[in-house]
Amino acid sequence: MSAFAIFIVLILAIGLLLVSNYNSLVRLRNQVKNAWSQIDVQLKRRHDLIPNLIETVKGYMSHEKETLENITNARSQALKAGTVAEKAKAESMLSGALGRFNVVVENYPDLKANQNFLALQEELTSTENKISFARQNYNDQVLRYNNKIEMFPSNIIAGMFNFTKEEFFEIETAEEREVPKVDFK
Amino acid sequence: MWEIIRANKRKSLALFIGMGTVLLLLGYLIGGYIFGQEGAPLGVIGAAGLWLILSVISYFSGSKIILGISKAKKISKEDHPRLFNVVEEMTIAAGLPEMPDIYIINEPAPNAFATGIKPENSAVAVTTGLLAMLNRDELQGVIAHELGHIKNRDVLLMTFAGVMLGSIIMISDIFVRGMFYSGHSTDRYRNRSSRENNPAQAVFLILAILFAVLSPVLAQILYFAISRKREYLADASAARFTRYPEGLASALEKLANNTYPLRTANRVTAAFYIVNPLHNKINDLTSTHPPIQERIRILRSMMHGAGFAEYQKAFNKIKRTKKRIIPNSVLSKDKNVSLKTQTGEHPTAGKMKVKRNLGDLMMTFNNYVFVPCACGLKIKVPPTYKNNRVKCPKCGRIHTLPDKRGKL
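The joint structure predicted for all components is written out below.
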């Protein structure tokens, strides 16, 4: 009789553990999805801004065909990218192309006085910032979700119900890696 | 984030209860004087009732009242795209559920504040002076500080505490004035016979007058203590959100140098602003904000990261205390938050760099030593410099020079 009671309690306890772990896995996965959609909104926004930008600067920068083509190419690649890793790669290319563009712009004082261009540049800067803040948030969420999948006992449940790890959205640029070094000359 | 909110609730609750005690004691003494000893609880009920009614009003329209007093006007994206964008960016960084409304105050004094009982219906207000003075990174730091207040639920607590302070000031004001004008003659007239056989009332009178004079000061000290603690936490949050403490530090520096007083601020609303708008010369118990230079130094000594742990370390180093402003449970989870290098470089930075690199090359040939500082400055030490330590002229950090120097 008492053995039966213990058995029942044990079954209930395991069931409860199963349910709570399953639920928290689902919640974390949804948070990852939500964080991703925030990035996606901002990426789309940037893609929409670029044709406008090219249109505005074309008249001023007839000698910078290559720079502008680089941006257009990077954009069309970014539009084609499917997986998170592909997107991350395409977006860092696009960021690089835009960065070079910003350097070139310095040589065109007329353009920098153009109100339309200034407004576009503010939008691009802001979108770039939003992407990077949304990326921080997304990567934090992915880390929590992936940890949960690997750790015991939720790893068993993750295996049973086919929860798979998500990819990080990493854009590594040279500047981000740079650490101040002391010059011992 | 939740642990911070909870821990702060606990700490601030103690101060809050202290203020409540002052309010109720004031009610008790005045009640005891007016109605006699048996009537003292009536005064307590009256004082508590006044606070409750005012609290309910401020709960439902508190931010509107504060925005109204400050003469703030709501704007949309077209009015100031950059401000709008920065608030949007920081909303994402802070992970707030909804973007706060944005208000502009037409004042030359640079300042900003946040209000709103819940994060879902909050608002940030900035002055036109602030917008004119700060660059993008600095504006980002200020807005991040304000959203930090919203995220940490500071606004809710400060609203209730502010209302309490207002009630205490109001009650003691009415009482003291009543004593001086009408009360003086009629009270004596009415109570002369009863007072002789009731010495308790005389005691109540003395205590009530004494307390009526003291309580506003006492309540203000407690109110400001709550406010100051929250400023550090909002600074820490701003560093965490932007990953760039220098932005807020240099904004605070500019605000500290401002000489305009903010005409639309008063003693209660002062605590809501990012820097004290009232220009008190004394930085003591009656200040709503920690000394601004100290806040700047703390932000600038965050050399290895932008997380809460790094802020705590910098705080302890600058203040020379072991006090915790951020609970341990958060610190352990928040270790590796990397700093961001300068976001938007100055437009002319590209050309300047080329010139600078050439100059540096010349200096290298002349045995200069270069020490990069965490604030972004490269300190160039001439070979004739004898000391083996050098202080950064921009942020004040001390660097030790490599000792091979001069023996080349």
